[in-house]
Amino acid sequence: MNQPVLSIDIAKGKSVAVAFTSYGMQVKKPFSFLHSPDHISSLLSILVQLEEATMQQPTVVMEATGNYSKPIASFFFSHGYPVFMLNPLTTHELKKRSTRKVKTDPIDAIRIANAFYLGEGTPLIPVNEKVTELRFLCRQHAQWKALLGEVQLQFRSILDLAFPGYDKAFQNIFNPSSIQLLTKFPSPSALLNADKEDVLTILMLNRRGRTWNKEKYSQLIEIARNSLPDLYGSKAHVFAMQNSMKLFKTYQEGIASLEKQMESLAQESSAYHLLRSIPGVGPITAAMIHAEIGDIKRFPSVKQLTAFAGLDSSVYESGTFKANQNRISKRGSAYLRTALYQASVSGISKQVHGPRNPILWRYYQQKRLEGKPAKVAIVAASSKLLRMIYGILSSGTPFQDN
């Protein structure tokens, strides 16, 4: 291939580049540069020299390394140069095939160029600015939800020491009345010594009748009398529990704020409204799916979209052996895969008048009748949902149960 290339091995704050006029024709030895405006601008002169020497526009090639590669890639793309992104797994495979196990940044930069010359890599196609913003918000939302889950687990473990049995009184110990009750009365002794009316006032936050809350009060008092907390370090337990509740409230408020921004931004897209037409796809899930997929025209076929979601089947063959129970690859967007799974669970759930999404439910039942475990059947339903999404977004037609 007689294509001039500037190959870059990306690292944090500092990277290594090497220039080729064609395959195997290295014209500039590997050199390092800092991720600063002055250093990266100096690379433009090298691209100009490559173009003058070959009479062809050079291509910039690098690995897709997330936050480290995005500013570099956008810089060159904004200056009119084609940018190709390589999956790090590709260069890792080349490294494993090498006779000598050598790992240095200059050699990695050369490997990246060789992988490109062998036909690897995909051209960088910038995503719409609003979709990029929505994607960032959605991923922040997913990360904050994960952090909230960790805080809840930690809180439960501390509660078992400070107030054993308390969780039996509430279906959800993180509801507002429960959290406020624990904030004011964080131990069995504190609750037993509390004024009954003070406790009832907090319980009434659940908007149930006074009779119901009096029964709940009696249940809590009975639990407190029979609770056996760990007396050693009890002050520390209460302190840790109060800190966990503060974190819980902070994350809840942050997640609510993110969801408000996500919905506001997603509302501007027609794709979002098409996704919302699918039963089981809620506002947050629709925003996540739209943010990850972006423009559906990026995917020429549903197979490519399925691979992007990591829902394509992995293939294992060796000699005459061919596996007949292959798992999904999980190589694509984990955020998209999670959103599809959640939407599928919601879609196959039964309501008063039947399943929320009849098509998904019938497909799920079919897989269950084939002997598939529940989770495997849900993953299969996720793949089915993705095919539905591809058809809906490609045609611009809302969901129809036919």
From TrEMBL:
SUPFAM superfamilies, sorted: DNA-glycosylase (SSF48150)
Transposase IS110-like N-terminal domain span: 8-164
Domain Transposase IS116/IS110/IS902 C-terminal: 273-351
Source organism, top-level taxon: Bacteria
NCBIfam families documented for this protein: transpos_IS110
PANTHER family for this protein: TRANSPOSASE, TRANSPOSASE FOR INSERTION SEQUENCE ELEMENT IS1111A
The protein, known as: IS110 family transposase
Source species of the chain: Paenibacillus profundus
